[in-house]
Amino acid sequence: MNSQSAAGTEAADGTRAQRVLIVTAVAAEREAVLRGLRGSSRFDVIAAGAGPAAAAAGTAAALAAGSYGCVVSAGIGGGFPGRAPVGSLVVASEMLEAALGAETPEGFRSAAELGFGSVSVPAPGGTVQALAAALAAAGLTVSTGPVLTVSTATGTAGTAAALAARHPEAAAEAMEGHGVAVAAHALGIAALELRAISNAVGPRDRAAWKINEALDALTAAAAILLEVL
Ligand SMILES: O=C(O)c1cccc(C(=O)CC[C@H]2O[C@@H](n3cnc4c(=O)[nH]cnc43)[C@H](O)[C@@H]2O)c1
């Protein structure tokens, strides 16, 4: 007899049986995650490509080929100033599609405002809190909050301000989380998003991105995923 929770499937002997799929965008992120997982056979890690479409398609294909209890969108991301500093980690409370909508003379109208239905997939709250607590206990800087999925990385102060005004609780932005979550949700599988912050959301300064620092944080966080999921 197994007891099921968002954080895992615990067998009668106390062992966890849940298989976990981790979806990154690029190979460097996949390798960073694999370093942290230290060869655990319970986790599969794929690099599905950048953007929500590639992420959703890659996730759906992997879920069709295997049996998983949980899916994690993981990688580097941009942090909203004052919420998620460079080098820190963000565990998403929800994976929110922020780019889908329409321009109007009065400004951007979101897909939700246009009546397209929900553009947000909530993460399982207990697991989010457990993961954030475990990351903090390991000495890592972590915050929780919505992570926005965008198709164009923010590159101006104006876009950053507009996004922050529309989503004042947002902690980070990246390009895949909502796609991964929609694919998982369609199969009734819990989805999480974990971002290591490489840059601030704001005026583009690619040379200033701390990619290696963020990949190191991602490796450290993956080691904690082993304990929590
Ligand atoms: O150039 C490299 O060495 C390198 C190593 C690892 C990752 C990359 C990427 O460019 C990853 C692309 C991926 O990163 C996310 N991301 C990061 N910052 C932002 C942002 O400010 N806004 C949106 N997305 C961001 C995103 O998920 C991309 O798919 C390069």
From TrEMBL:
GO terms for molecular function: hydrolase activity, acting on glycosyl bonds. Pathway: Quinol/quinone metabolism; menaquinone biosynthesis. HAMAP family: MqnB. The gene is mqnB. PANTHER family: 5'-METHYLTHIOADENOSINE/S-ADENOSYLHOMOCYSTEINE NUCLEOSIDASE (PTHR46832), FUTALOSINE HYDROLASE (PTHR46832:SF2). Belongs to the PNP/UDP phosphorylase family. Futalosine hydrolase subfamily. InterPro entries: FL_hydrolase_MqnB, Nucleoside_phosphorylase_d, Nucleoside_phosphorylase_sf. This is Futalosine hydrolase. It comes from Paenibacillus tritici. The keyword NADP does not apply.
